[in-house]
Amino acid sequence: MIIGKWNGEWGEITNKDGNTVKNYKHMIYRDGHWCGNKARETHVHLECGWSDQIISVTESSTCTYVFKFSTLLACIL
To answer: What is this structure's pTM?
Structure first.
């Protein structure tokens, strides 16, 4: 089962000036296998940590998954 494909899409946040900018700690995977009437989608939130590991996985809505992933690389973002 494919839960999404990453095409370089990042999440967005609003900075202190009110401008929308890319959030390089939020990766968005779209166009996964069909699930009912929509394609699966996955959001990966990167968190600073000493090792690469999945912290948690939830299904925020039907066929939309949220992964929290720990990695040392997120510490410099």
So the answer is: 0.86
